[in-house]
Write a structure and sequence with these properties.
The protein is α+β, with helices and mostly antiparallel strands. It is built from 7 helices and 12 strands. The strands form 2 sheets. Strands 1, 2, 3, 4, 6, 9, 11 and 12 form an 8-stranded antiparallel beta sheet that branches. A 4-stranded antiparallel beta sheet has the order 5-10-7-8. It is globular and about 55 Å long. 45% of the residues are buried.
Length: 302
């Protein structure tokens, strides 16, 4: 659906002004919108998941560990596809007001794509460099968005999500290095085209949501505080957005319709999209690629 078509539907949760702000700026911050009982359930679920990592010594397809991780002192970067590892993550994704909020921004028919939990551990949690999402998992249109839930309070010292307002309307950047290796972030040369001085950071109390469009340039700084910043992330799209390539964090729930009905016709945005590496051989995480720890398959020959 086009933004005009989305806005023609009555909102379920958001105000019309909030919807218009999202389409203009490419992001939203909804403070303390998730009920406290749900936040408490997410905390208990996440604590249970962290306890499971005490027996893990190295990163794998599920867990991306921070340097210094140990059984006595876990340090984590990411849990990939949390909806596959605890039923409450999927319950929250599919049955809470999350789906209604997304429907206000992509249209009444909402499709799930993937999930992840980025921990941003205390005292040194890794930065996420400036990047755009859609090059990781291109679709036939640019409705996909990512919703982040702050499970605990997040202030500026904890590395909140940062966005470049309006960048979703600009260039789609080639996130490979000069040798054709996937980096998952903007090059220094491309960063000169982005006015990072206009970055808006999105701290918020527990239960706040961050929302950004798949084309929006975004990232987050190092966590220098004594408190972690777990951010639970879900990617959704309109039902008429069809993936061009394999899902790097594929779940059995991939392509599940969580609101409305499946599409009978794909919507194609005329603007082209860069293709990612072939993820069929496995996917590390954005951290491993941005930090140069993992080399993906090379880019397609230009």
């Amino acid at each position: 659906m086009t933004p005009e078509e989305v806005l023609s539907h009555p909102p379920r949760i958001l105000t019309q002004a909030q919807r218009e702000s999202y389409f203009e700026g490419g992001y939203l911050l909804l403070e303390s919108i998730i009920p406290k009982d749900i936040v408490e359930n997410l905390r208990r679920t996440t604590e249970e998941m962290v306890d499971r990592t005490r027996s893990i010594a190295k990163s794998d397809a599920v867990w991306d560990l921070e340097p210094g991780h140990s059984a006595d002192s876990p340090r984590l970067r990411r849990l990939s596809s949390p909806v596959d590892h605890h039923p409450y993550y999927w319950e929250y994704c599919s049955q809470s007001l999350l789906g209604d909020i997304v429907a206000d921004l992509v249209g009444p028919d909402v499709k799930f794509h993937h999930s992840k939990l980025n921990f941003k551990w205390a005292k040194g949690g890794t930065e996420v460099k400036w990047h755009q999402d859609i090059q990781f998992w291109p679709h036939t249109n640019y409705s996909p968005l990512t919703v982040g839930t702050y499970i605990y309070d997040c202030d500026m010292d904890q590395g909140p999500l940062g966005v470049i307002p309006g960048s979703h309307k600009g260039e789609l950047f080639y996130q490979f290095d000069d040798a054709g290796n996937w980096t998952g972030c903007l090059s220094d040369e491309d960063l000169e085209k982005v006015d990072v001085s206009k970055a808006v950071y999105l701290p918020g109390p527990a239960g706040s949501l961050t929302i950004h469009n798949c084309r929006t340039v975004h990232g987050s700084k190092l966590n220098e505080s004594p408190n972690g910043r777990p951010l639970l992330l879900y990617a959704f799209s309109s039902a008429d957005a069809m993936p061009y390539t394999g899902n790097p964090i594929r779940s059995p729930h991939d392509q599940s319709i969580i609101r409305g009905k499946r599409a009978l016709m794909a919507h194609h945005d005329p603007r082209p999209c860069w293709l990612p590496p072939d993820w069929s051989g496995g996917y590390g995480s954005i951290f491993t690629y941005q930090q140069g720890e993992t080399k993906a398959a090379p880019a397609l020959t230009m």
